[in-house]
Design goal:
It contains 6 helices and 7 strands; from the N terminus they run ββαααβββαβαβα. By secondary structure, it is of the alpha/beta class. It has one domain: 3-Layer(aba) Sandwich (Uracil-DNA Glycosylase, subunit E), CATH 3.40.470.10. Helix 5 links the parallel strand 6 and strand 7.
Length: about 160
């Protein structure tokens, strides 16, 4: 019998027809899966980076504002993996990974011209057929300071 506590299933893509950049993480962490929101852990710096780069550091009232900010800036989110087994939230614990059909998504949304991977693990799991960059992981497992991450993401998100 399968241990359902370690089986993780990704979210559908957060995308619309205007998306030009696709940010690919590996697999949502436990907080994200529990809340049904991308990058829900307060320890993850993803939304702090998006806030600094696209929201003038005003902060977000709720998840809808975060999503609206991404869409306004033509950014989509998804994960490289559709499912995996993983204890906890660390990418280093991922086993039995199954890939999302990213090629099909890119065909469905032809305005996407660039992929930005959220960290090395995501990049190692999938080789894209379009331009791509590998940004600093926003996970708290990446101990780099937020200012370093913001500068790195700013340069990688340039179209």
């Amino acid at each position: 019998m399968e241990n359902t506590e370690i089986k993780k299933v990704s979210f559908p893509p957060l995308i619309d027809e205007e998306a030009e950049i696709l940010i690919l993480g590996t697999m949502p962490g436990n907080d994200s899966l529990r809340l049904g929101q991308y990058y829900a852990s307060s320890n993850n710096s993803f939304w702090k980076i998006i806030n600094a780069l696209f929201n003038e550091n005003k902060g977000f009232a709720d998840y809808k504002e975060k999503v609206d900010c991404l869409k306004k800036n033509h950014i989509a989110l998804w994960n490289v993996l559709s499912s995996c087994n993983r204890e906890g939230s660390a990418d280093s614990n991922i086993q039995e990974e199954k890939l999302n059909d990213i090629e099909a998504l890119l065909k469905q949304y032809p305005n996407i011209k660039k992929i930005v991977f959220n960290g090395q693990k995501a990049a190692k799991s999938y080789t894209p057929c379009i331009a791509y960059a590998i940004a600093e992981s926003t996970s708290n497992a990446n101990a780099k300071k937020i200012g370093v991450k913001i500068k790195n993401w700013e340069s990688n998100l340039k179209k």
